[in-house]
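Hi R.,

Here's the chain you asked about this morning:
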Amino acid sequence: MTARHLPVHPTRRALLGLAAGVPAALLLAACGADTSERYSSGDSGYVSGSGVATEIAPADRGEALEIEGTTYDEEEFSSSEHHGEVLVVNVWYASCPPCRKEAPDLQAIHEEYAEQGVSLIGVNVRDSAGPARAFEETYGITYASMPDPDAEIMYSLRGQVAPNAVPSTLVLDREGRVAARISGAADPSVLRAMIDAVIDE
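And here is the predicted structure, written out as tokens:
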């Protein structure tokens, strides 16, 4: 697999200009080491610090993900219905400090990119409707989220999102394939650059 391991705080030009060609073994080793170092202690289950970001070249992407669930508003969601669009998937829960930090940025990105055919969907790994809706009200979140108490959605993301790597964000291309990922709190400039790159494909 050819992929690009992105710096945490690059300029957009530097981010988009990184050369491909990192050997697969080196990439996998780096991702594993970087992410594990950001795990917080104990059982809090979130990744502290800034996110580890990776882009995947179009020719090296895997099969389309099949993400299905029911939102807190009792609406059915299927990622297959978003083929032809860019879809951003954010894994979160309400008491996760990095999730709270990135929430306003994700909402801003949702508003900024809606007219360009980019959709956001949240996957909440812990919360019932009450805490989730309180979080959304506090941070002005208007895109939908799906509860995943039995980890069925997380199972569909296996190989892309580690079970305790919360928050995590995936950018899916128009075919539903993972084009980019961030493990940990998303730097908004990095996420915007990832989305822009997929839009321009």
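One quick note: The first strand starts at residue 3 and ends at 6.

Cheers,
M.
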